[in-house]
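Exercise 7. Predict the joint structure of the components listed below.
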Amino acid sequence: MKKAVVVMSGGMDSTLCATLALKQGYEIIALHFDYNQRTMKREKQAFNDICDRLNITKRLSLDVSFIAKIGGNSLTDKSMQVPKTGLSDGVPNTYVPYRNGIFLSIAAAVAEKNDAKAIYIGVVEEDSSGYPDCRAEFIKTIQNAINLGTKDSTKIEIKMPLVSLSKADIVRVSLENNSPLELTWSCYESEEMACGVCDSCRLRLNGFKKANSTDPIKYKF
Amino acid sequence: MKKAVVVMSGGMDSTLCATLALKQGYEIIALHFDYNQRTMKREKQAFNDICDRLNITKRLSLDVSFIAKIGGNSLTDKSMQVPKTGLSDGVPNTYVPYRNGIFLSIAAAVAEKNDAKAIYIGVVEEDSSGYPDCRAEFIKTIQNAINLGTKDSTKIEIKMPLVSLSKADIVRVSLENNSPLELTWSCYESEEMACGVCDSCRLRLNGFKKANSTDPIKYKF
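Solution:
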């Protein structure tokens, strides 16, 4: 059975990736990262709930808390404020330096070790926070790097099925494919009820609204 | 003062990189990785001894022990044997899947956070163990990926001054530049005295021999 490593945060984008990978017939190795981000516990719970629902037994949850030690972002540095007044131009302070580069490099090692031929990542290029490590051109280039920097027999394709979708598209495709939206977590700041006002909550709520649907999770506001 | 992140294992290649970066006028951020490899303590000691000697105060030692959790190599998996009968064709079991890809991705995050414009890595392409993540083409491609996956204002050059050198060249250039060879550690297996028979010891000893020099560190054999 063909294998894929799926980078899963517990959010709705990576959950849809897992749903689509299963539909494509892949056996999934679910890869999750803990890095002392504000909502670390809640994301890990979402990750496990989603894997339970999707019957994914191969799970690897890795401690990458060195990311918090490097710092420079408001998700790990509690002395910084997560923006709550709406998306602005430029790269916001929730950008974690080269996070997807680090995650994909680790995913490549996991894929090589386990003979997986694909890595799924739920990057979204346009309808997003404007993180540079979510751009399609970056993903294509790091795929080349990974194939040059691993054994000649290792051939890995990085799949990014959501890269050109809007958040509304993601909600629609999730509903069509029974992706468990109700188990996902997107909020950057809160672990009890989603804050509703951070960029991640705003993008998510806007997606549901534009898809004429209602978000099944609870919000403070 | 221009800044460079130097990936430093404690071995003679990365130590020469640090020596050369200082000579080029860089302020150095020394980056070391612990990953539960067999000689972790000894390498960390070498790293600190070398930084002390070179007056490098900015040091970042990061726990990347998830590498041992991924496994698939004899440096972290003690149930596997480190080869001791000489270099063979193909990729040996001391190859840690995509290690330099992971290290360079983390170095990129450190560089972006700290406004460093260069990353030094002591990869050697020919006179080496044949690891795929030590090839120049890989390093050039991951440099492109890093610049696409970080902020547009972030421009990072990956410098690999040793990539085309032989081990004998590295010994000669180290001696010419007073790189502290006596403080470095290369052995894959032992922490007291170098084993002298693993691939890394063999490459090192052969380099000293061809450079008509004597290795200042102690060996069992």
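Discussion. Chain B has one domain: 3-210.
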